[in-house]
Amino acid sequence: MPEPRAQPVTKSRNPTTPKFDDQELYNLAAKFGTPYFLIDEGVLRKNVSEIEQAYQGFKGPFRVAYSIKANFNPAVIKTFVSEGIMFDLTAANELYFLLKCGGSPENVIYTSITETLAEFESLISRGVRKIVVSSYNGLLNLIEATAKVGGQVSVLIRVNPEVHVKAELRFSLRHGKFGVPLDSMGEDSAMFMLRKILETPSLNFDGFHFHLGSQVEDPSCYSEALEKLEAFILGARRTLGEFPINTLDIGGGLPTSYGKSVPAPADFSARIMEQLSSLAESFGNKFTLIVESGRFLSADSTVMVSKIVNVKRFNENKYVYLDAGYHDLADAALLRHEYPVEVVPGGAVTQQKTVLVGRLCDSLDVFATSSRSKLGGAEVGKIVVFRGVGAYSIVLGSPFHCQPKPYVHMRDAQGRYSIVRRGQTIEELFDEEGGALPDPAESRE
After folding, report:
1. How much is the pTM?
2. Would you place residue 244 in the very low, low, confident or very high pLDDT band (cuts 50, 70, 90)?
3. In this model, does residue 352 exceed pLDDT 90?
4. Given this structure, which CATH class describes domain 55-293?
């Protein structure tokens, strides 16, 4: 079967790029060192509002859910808690962070990957009541957990619509890791699991969840997934009788711009709004629509500031060496994001091609830069600002080459700057890696 042709972007999005005073960037560098990350609270809030406005035409309740895995800095979590949105969690440790930041378990939709009994017991005992299952064995573990801990749990089934997705990362692959198929009758199938949930008194069937990919370029895949899900529900009701659909979670995938035009949330909603509203009415109850986002909500909010420490020129290239490396922007190394990068202060563009390289002893430590980058005037002592790095980069950072964690700062809605994660010292890193433990030879009896 030929792959569907991607539809053109009709509402391209320009990222909500925070503007920071150049002198303030240098002041932070002088006081706390480089590299460092700087988050803008205002952008976090604007991105929530952009999604909410895009789906305001939906004929039913609508909620945004932040995927904490993208950036679990407590300051970021607290900002989203104050916005009153939901939180998409996939690990019990993420729940710990959310609760410590003032979040409520009532605003959690939990999608486990491992689905263990101990995990479910921990979640239920801490008040989580909306849980997504994606395997029959996981469902059995959830049933056992509810029997041990007590209480009713609302359950969604994560399905895999198996549609073609034009995206940077695709999660709707046939026989893939995530979700269960709609067209199978085995134990690990939507029909088998739905029947089991409906006959289990401790479980309330709540609805369905799917996630198609990350950085989705063509919104039409959502329409195809909804068509398949509607056909499944209609068929299941003929077989099992009427059952409610209280929640429909269509996952994430809203793209952020790293150097090219991408669809805006309004572009996504425009393609499927009529379809979603029709489903809400035809299913007999107006379900709550959930749209998840990790990358879209957090990426644009943050810059990374690094210092130029060396310059080398030969042939047609000008190599600019930074005191940061791909261990600071691991998401860039994994997915080759072309971040917009700017030299501050800028200067004239030379005939030589400017190549940004990191401080690691690794030939892969070269930064891809977008066409929107401004690299003129790159000289030793100046700073370089990477934009759009708020998703995954901070949380995927590593201490490669014995590099301590850098500082993370935030500018709040009133324009005040504060430290939201202290930079790690080399002594703290040494102790963390086991340096403070007793010498093995001395601890043996």
Report:
1. 0.93
2. very high
3. no
4. alpha beta
